[in-house]
């Protein structure tokens, strides 16, 4: 059996605590019944409770819920295999929105320069989906994987440092979040994954060796766009230049060393964006080449949907379980 929307299967985990709660209730109900019956002979007044019916009724309702969840995932009976060429590509744009991206050593500032590059790249993409991950000290998914270009552009235009309260720049957490986002897309569509990072190179996180190993293992393509100048400049803030705890003006500059080292590790590509030399056309062309070279994969030759049958069985179990009582049927007496 295979599934058209396997992401829904994660909802089955919700049945684990629910099952524990249900069977705790069964045990408690039987315990209370025995205590009451032992003290007052209540069995002659109220009908006895059947432990077997208690359990069976709740099993039917839980199984009904499980089948409904599985039906959401689009279950299919799959047989045979055939080679299928992957279509499209999933691009996760990673945009640094730390305060240093407000520096004006590139016109009009680093963040605007970065947004412009990502916007032009997104407009050049062909078939596939795109997502936007913003990061500073923590990452946030601004736009999940989508093929709606208009929504993506609106959310990209809204990207500012105000969206993340934890400042600094932590590439590790950003890449971990981007890979999780890409992983969900791969399971759902089977598309190739490309990460496009745009940053000034300042990092306050940790070593990225294991992140690079993960990207290599999964065959994730990486393109890094650097923005900013090499000469230190202040960071403009609403109340004046940003200052440290001692009152000294904080200076920032483009630091390509970390980004260049990461690119060498994952066999990616590094670009340096300047107002007079934008790189969006080059990046888009390289992504298109990667999409054209998408590998062939083996997919089921025949798929027969069975979600309708599962829904029918789930409803049957639900109705049967709802109509069943916990009362034990009295034994027949011989005349």
From TrEMBL:
<keyword id="KW-1003">Cell membrane</keyword>
<feature type="domain" description="VWFA">
    <location>
        <begin position="90"/>
        <end position="228"/>
    </location>
</feature>
<keyword id="KW-1133">Transmembrane helix</keyword>
<keyword id="KW-0812">Transmembrane</keyword>
<feature type="transmembrane region" description="Helical">
    <location>
        <begin position="6"/>
        <end position="26"/>
    </location>
</feature>
<dbReference type="InterPro" id="IPR002035">
    <property type="entry name" value="VWF_A"/>
</dbReference>
<keyword id="KW-0472">Membrane</keyword>
<feature type="transmembrane region" description="Helical">
    <location>
        <begin position="59"/>
        <end position="77"/>
    </location>
</feature>
<dbReference type="InterPro" id="IPR050768">
    <property type="entry name" value="UPF0353/GerABKA_families"/>
</dbReference>
<protein>
    <submittedName>
        <fullName>VWA domain-containing protein</fullName>
    </submittedName>
</protein>
<dbReference type="Pfam" id="PF13519">
    <property type="entry name" value="VWA_2"/>
</dbReference>
<dbReference type="InterPro" id="IPR036465">
    <property type="entry name" value="vWFA_dom_sf"/>
</dbReference>
